[in-house]
Amino acid sequence: MAEFTMELNDEQREVRDWLHGFAADVIRPAAAEWDEREETPWPVIQEAAKVGIYSLDFYAQQYFDPTGLGIPMAMEELFWGDAGIALSIVGTGLAAVGVLANGTEEQIGTWIPQMYGDQNDVKVAAFCSSEPDAGSDVASMRTRAVYDEAKDEWVINGTKTWATNGGIANVHVVVAVVDPELGSKGHASFIVPPGTAGLSQGQKFKKHGIRASHTAEVILDNVRVPGSCLLGGKEKLDERLARARERAKASGGERVKNAAMATFEASRPAVGAMAVGTARAAYEVALDYARTREQFGRPIIDNQGVAFQLADMRTQIDAARLLVWRASWMAVNGKPFTAAEGSMSKLFASETAKKVTAQAIQILGGNGYTREYPVERMHRDAAIYTIFEGTSEIQRLVIARTLAGMPIR
Ligand SMILES: Cc1cc2nc3c(=O)[nH]c(=O)nc-3n(C[C@H](O)[C@H](O)[C@H](O)COP(=O)(O)OP(=O)(O)OC[C@H]3O[C@@H](n4cnc5c(N)ncnc54)[C@H](O)[C@@H]3O)c2cc1C
Questions:
Q1: How far apart are the C-alpha atoms of 83 and 176, rounded to whole Å?
Q2: Pair type for strands 294-295 and 215-226
Q3: pTM higher than 0.85
Q4: 322-342 pLDDT, tens per residue?
Q5: 135 lines ligand 1 (CB under 6 A)
Q6: How far apart are CA 399 and CA 134, in angstroms?
């Protein structure tokens, strides 16, 4: 187990500086254009693929960094560049993690390369769990997967919503109900291969922020996938369902829910790190502006009312980063989240990003309110962090119930 450290080692510093260079030279200059276009920034993803940032290898290397700082450091730098473009670059990772976590070696080897494509023909992937009536309440999911034994195929029907890269993905990972009696433990994940009949894109959402990231409904109408597309395989699923039925009988479902919670605790710090990146970006713009903008014959930072805001912004950003790094270190080193530290980090960092980006607009005055300066976009982008991967209310619920020793529901 690695000791918790707040010091990046030489190798991590090198990676951070390289990512920062890409964020500053390639992502940030493209941010306003793709925000206005509200389209996936394919050329930027391709650039990222060319230099090795858009690849499973890169994320795996960061993920297995025993200090736990690899992923948060990478997310902070890319999202510092621009949240919408960065989500287009890392969004495929959500689906890839779904396959890595539940797939067999063969499934990993077959599908993950198809999720990323190659640098001359980049592809993206989508992870489809949320539904119109199942957002925070994942257990109320309705999309159904039924096994057709005669053909060794699964038949999937339902509507997914809010899917990042939904409909434009080469590979979709779809979560569906296989046993409605078991709540979230009766769910299983399926690969829907490229070009599968019955999968189509529904509405593409016009969003408040992260507009360079594609978000859409995914309709599954009698989608048939081979038995080999069930992540983990049928035997493992049958064993898991049998165990879940036993546990549900023994504990009224309590342990089932706690097991689901542990998975989110480990992934939430990464979203916290994205929020830290956006908050830091807005803070830096505001600090620079406050030093150079003069009113009443002096830089506005000479007013305590402005300087104290910057002091609070920086304090909150640093505190958020520390919570994120702690939770990420805990996740990598298998430490139990006895106080829901993963949710804590996501809650604090996402609320900080919303607050700090609003303060940045205030410090830039009229300029902050226009699209001539990037803080207006950053403020719109920051609002997503308190919503996806569990809203702030759900994080508070998870933390409170963990502290109280109550089941998570
Ligand atoms: C841009 C974007 C990208 C996304 N990408 C993906 C993706 O790739 N894949 C995917 O599967 N999903 C994705 N999502 C979905 C996202 O995870 C959900 O939007 C989120 O979980 C919230 O669900 P909901 O929108 O249905 O809100 P609801 O669950 O309906 O919540 C509405 C409000 O009620 C509050 N609330 C609900 N229950 C409680 C409670 N018990 N106690 C207190 N307050 C409560 C919430 O906090 C919120 O304020 C994305 C969403 C967006 C906006």
A1: 29
A2: unpaired
A3: yes
A4: 999 999 999 999 999 999 999
A5: yes
A6: 21
